[in-house]
Amino acid sequence: MENYTMEGRTYRYYGQDAPLYPFGYGLSYTTFHYRDLVLSPPVLPMCANLSVSVVLENTGLRDSEEVVQLYLRWEQSSVPVPRWQLVAFRRVAVLAGQETKLSFQVLAEQRAVWAQDWRLEPGSFTLFAGGQQPGQKMQAPSEVLSAQFSVTGAARPLSGC
Questions:
Q1: Alpha-carbon distance 47 to 108, whole Å?
Q2: pLDDT tens column, 3-46
Q3: Residue-range domain boundaries for the chain
Q4: Which of 24, 35, 58, 123 is deepest in the core (most CB within 10 A)?
Q5: According to the 3-state scheme, what is the secondary structure of 22-91?
Q6: Fibronectin type III-like domain spans which residues (predicted)?
Q7: Single pTM value for the model
């Protein structure tokens, strides 16, 4: 083997081709609606964690569970990074017609990139929240919300935080 890159070899590095059965693939006996995705603060210092909240509503007629997934996308990076990266998920039971507000923390180390060592870099990021991966095509409807945030400061090794 001469080419050790992961490009085209794992779902994280497929480029424009989506995997046949991506993480979170499946059907449900009800429908869910996502709303009110809030990122706090929208501008982070380099070593800070991001607080995320989202409201999940069961709009169907049956009690059910949903796996809420958060994905992170780097808008610019000094090194190759995945199209998006799973940074949090939670299985939540929601009664029919009810809603719940979920809170997550996206840690600074989850934004780190490998460049001879784990480094944090400034820049713009997009966070996706929903019942599937961003851009996934499914027969069962599922929403994916997105919001942007930015990180300020000078790039530094993760160990410097």
A1: 6
A2: 666 665 555 555 566 566 666 666 778 889 999 999 999 999 99
A3: 32-133+141-160
A4: 58
A5: CCCCCCCCCCEEEEEEEEECCEEECCCCEEEEEEEEECCCCCEEEEEEEEEEECCCCCCCCCCEEEEEEE
A6: 66-133
A7: 0.84
